Amino acid sequence: MPAKILAFAGSTRKESFNRKLLPLAVAGAREAGAEVTLIELSDYDLPLFNQDLEASGPPAAATKLKQLFFEHQGLLIASPEYNSSITPLLKNALDWVSRPAPGEQNIAAFRGKAAGLISASPGQLGGMRALVHLRSILGNIDVLVIPTQTAVPQAMNAFADDGSLKDAKQQANVKLVGQKLAELLLKLHR
Predict the structure, then answer these.
(1) Backbone angles phi, psi at 2, to 5 degrees
(2) What mean pLDDT, rounded, does the chain reach?
(3) Axis crossing angle, helix 60-71 with helix 88-98, rounded to the nearest 10
(4) DSSP string for residues in 108-148
(5) Cα–Cα distance for residue pair 12/19, rounded to 1 Å
(6) 37 within 8 A of 113, measured Cβ to Cβ
(7) Which three-class secondary structure state does DSSP give residue 60?
């Protein structure tokens, strides 16, 4: 049975560097034998998390997104960096998915998952500060984050017209994140 990975970017911007970067890591995961579901968070209309809203039942989009998390063993996340941290979109999606349904354990949709992280940013660190925060958040909700990660600096100049990275070493590093995540999941879920 192939490892199943849910892949998404923490941005909905049409020309998002992270939405451009994600398919490269997805290719690495698929080449290593994983089945990857690539989604857009913009397809899930999630209000800003609020326990008062939750009290009347989670939004349908939150339930649908959470079900996808349950159906996959791994997460491949391309995270932009906003003010040295992750985007509100990404944090809100993680918050909604983390909420337990009646009779469900806390963070049930995250338990036992593994994740691979990548980032691209116009800055000199390529989004690395956001990855530090994301790694901490995921670790605190029982997700094993693989040590292999990569961040692409100066993203506005990093991509070729065909969507690849101009720097072959950077391209290989991004694909490696997907590959390493897939290899781990294939070992864990034989």
Answers:
(1) -70, 150
(2) 96
(3) 80
(4) TTTTT-EEEEEEE-SSTTTTHHHHHHHHHHHHHTT-EEEEE
(5) 8
(6) no
(7) helix
| pLDDT per residue as tens digits for the range 19-75 | 999 999 999 999 999 999 999 999 999 999 999 988 888 999 999 999 999 999 999
Q: How many other CB atoms are found less than 10 A from the CB of residue 37?
A: 14
Tokens standing for residue 134 = 């994301």
CB 89 within 8 A of CB 19: no
**Domains, the chain, ordered by start:** 4-188 (3.40.50.360)
Please state whether 129 falls in left (phi above 0), alpha (psi between -120 and 50) or beta.
alpha
Q: In the numeric block, which tokens belong to residue 161?
A: 């017209």
Both tokens assigned to 43 = 């397809």
Instruction: List, in sequence order, every beta strand (DSSP E) within 83-184.
Output: 114-120, 144-152
Which residue carries 């909604």 as its tokens? 96
